[in-house]
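Board notes (copied after class):
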Amino acid sequence: MKYMDEFRDRRLVTTLVRQIHGEAGRPVRIMEVCGTHTMAIFRHGIRAMLPEEIELVSGPGCPVCVTPSGVIDGFLELARRPEIIITTFGDMLRVPGSETGPENSLAGARAEGADVRIVYSPMDALTLARQEPDREVVFLAVGFETTTPTIAATILAAHKLQVENFSVFPAVKTMGPPLKALMRDPEVRVDGLLCPGHVSIIAGADSFRFLAREHGLACAVAGFEPTDILLAITALLRQIDSGTPTVDNCYGRAVTMEGNRKARQITEKVFTPVDSEWRGMGLIPESGLGLRDQYKQFDITNRLNLTIPPSREPGGCRCGDILRSICSPPDCPLFGRACTPASPIGPCMVSSEGTCAAWHKYNNPEALT
């Protein structure tokens, strides 16, 4: 744990918690956008450390969770074609489409004979395509700004190497537009934002400044250790109390204000903004990324002229409301009952960054039954 122990120092954590209790003078609602933050907050017991005046709610920061069911149905349709090898990150494997049940997932399709393989990077998928020249290898491109540069770099490599049997199913998204949409939503009430650390490494802390400027929202970029999160909460409380919203970078060891320009340049070379559907939030203008014309041959939906079916939420599932911070997992009638990690109905219960998965793992769901 070299280089990490200082960010888990019990004495520093205790000092920060006391400081937060001393500064919390009125009810404050803070949204953590990133799913990794959600898991870290639960894992370290941070909710229990905070005074009752501070409420932490989760936002749309899990890329698997915000992928609409219609897109997942498109993944499944493609997986069932015998000439295609599907490659994906592990989190997507058990996410159900419009129909519930384990068979209506990539894992279910694989059990029925589909060739679905877990990879650790899109470059692994490109390597597989070169090893399997007689099959079409498709990478399911799901993610935010953090993973998009590696997807773009893989497409550039495929273009340079003239690998004609490699393609992606583009479903990548960007964080700015949905946050803007949320702040305009009259049902969403948030005083401060824990900005995502991983996204900020690429996009830069300044990419969230519009939230402070246009919406008066206190913002702080946070890392993922206890002191990281507590320092960010302290910064948010000070902004809120002073009435001077800004963006504090509390993750300086990894994040700069301007971000990673080279990574963004690679992304912009390959991708262009497009309108994109988000689970629970509908179609948000320019919130997704599509391939530019010169790389369209690597878009499997363009190559096969695929039509994405309309999205349909499973009956009773409130994943969409949870992603908008309208409710918490225990408010969903399926949570911990019909919907569990062993038999998930919604994606928030499947992903390792899902809010429902975090609540189920750390909040003793057996007490609900």
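Comment from the instructor: Residues 5-60+176-249 form a domain with the Rossmann fold fold (CATH 3.40.50.11750). The first strand starts at residue 28 and ends at 34.
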